[in-house]
Amino acid sequence: QVQLQESGPGLVKSSETLSLTCTVSGYFISSGHYWGWIRQPPGRGLEWIGTIHHSETTHYNSSLKSRVTISVDTSKNQFSLKLTSVTATDTAVYYCARHFCGGTNCPFDYWGQGTLVTVSS
Amino acid sequence: QSALTQPPSASGSPGQSVTISCTGTSSDVGGYNFVSWYQQHPGKAPNLIIYAVFKRPSGVPDRFSGSKSGNTASLTVSGLQAEDEADYYCSSYADTNKLVFGGGTKLTVL
Question: Which of A104, A106, A110 would you mutate first to test chain B, the one with the most B CBs within 10 A?
């Protein structure tokens, strides 16, 4: 059974960098599939942040591209998110998830439970 | 890369059918057959219920069905049950190698 688990600080100061890691179990990232980050501000809808393949091919949301870096560490079976210069509008539940086939054209079939990150002033 | 447009709310009585729309553009919904739908219960991660416009993952009841016409995709829930009360989100592949979600629809079972 594929499982994903987000980890990282739950509180980040404004203007600093948000860093999260997604640890995958039950499947080797190096075996294929694409892996993504999605966020959901409290009481609001889902927003795709970006997607990565184990080859390190990445695709990003245009509105966040200047601040986002997604990376992969196949030796640890993890992929990570960095979001720089955060503001209160970046406060959200952050999810990691697996695309169930080739890339961003494929939906997410497995999701982490999500982790709330609050940006404080 | 704008969010897809969904009605904020929908409702129906048990046993009835309800349809939720998802409107995009020719650069996303209208241009590709890569529309998905997710169900999200409060405090939970989204769960995939429809992909590639109308396909259902294993284990999803056939009460859930999807379709598309032009730039608008639709999710129909037939034979409404109490457990169908949840938020529903559409998503679509978009030019180029992007993914866009709808704003979400809160479905209430009366």
Answer: A104
Which residues of B have a CB under 8 Å from any CB of A?
Answer: 1, 3, 32, 34, 36, 38, 45-48, 51, 57, 89, 91, 93, 97-104
A75-98 pLDDT, tens digit per residue, is 999 999 999 999 999 999 999 999
Q: Is the dihedral of CA B18, B39, A83, A86 positive or negative?
A: positive
For residue B23, CA distances in Å to A71, B29, B34 come to 32, 7, 13
Residues paired with residue A29 on neighbouring β-strands, in sequence order: none
Q: Does A36 touch chain B (CB under 8 A)?
A: yes
Closest in A62, A106, A111 to B45, CB measured: A111
Answer whether A45 sits within 8 Å of B38, measured CB to CB: no
pLDDT band at B108 (very low <50, low <70, confident <90, very high): very high
Tell me, rounded to whole angstroms, the distance of Cα B97 from its chain centroid: 20
Cα(B37)–Cα(A115) distance, integer angstroms = 22
How do residues B40-69 score in pLDDT, each as one tens digit?
A: 999 999 999 999 999 999 999 999 999 999
- Strands, DSSP E only, in B1-110? 9-12, 18-23, 35-40, 47-50, 64-69, 72-77, 86-94, 98-101, 105-109
Whole-number Å distance between alpha carbons of B84 and B81:
5
Q: What is the mean pLDDT of residues A117-121?
A: 95
